[in-house]
Specification:
With about 110 residues, the chain is an all-alpha fold. The protein has helices spanning about 5-25, 30-50, 55-75, 90-110.
Length: about 110
């Protein structure tokens, strides 16, 4: 009994066709359920990160205020103290910024 290349190809094609039919018999909901479960899990993670949004924003505000204080002090380092309108001076500006910095950090520490 001799087998030709066509016979071999046809038998492998039919095997592949049978495997495809078997995979089509499986319910299509199973992969979509796993995908939807993965999506729900990702949304849960994002929601937990969203609750940190306020704290993260306040930390960024605190870092920005600290950078402003440092830049003001570096700008006026070694120079005569400026006097501005309404009786404001360098100490007043730095004290107001430091109070805002402390307030933002207290809110972040209190939330945690």
């Amino acid at each position: 009994m001799s087998t030709s290349n066509d016979d071999i190809l046809s038998s492998t094609d039919s095997t592949a066709f049978i495997q495809d039919e078997e995979s089509n018999n499986q319910p299509t909901d199973a992969p979509s359920k796993t995908v939807s479960a993965q999506i729900r899990q990702k949304w849960r993670r994002l929601r937990s990160l969203r609750t940190w949004g306020d704290e993260l924003a306040l930390v960024l505000v605190a870092v920005t205020i600290l950078a402003v204080i440092i830049s003001i002090l570096l700008h006026y380092n070694g120079k005569p103290a400026p006097t501005w309108k309404f009786g404001l001076n360098l100490n007043t500006i730095v004290a107001l910024l430091a109070t805002a910095l402390r307030s933002s950090l207290v809110v972040v520490a209190e939330e945690g």
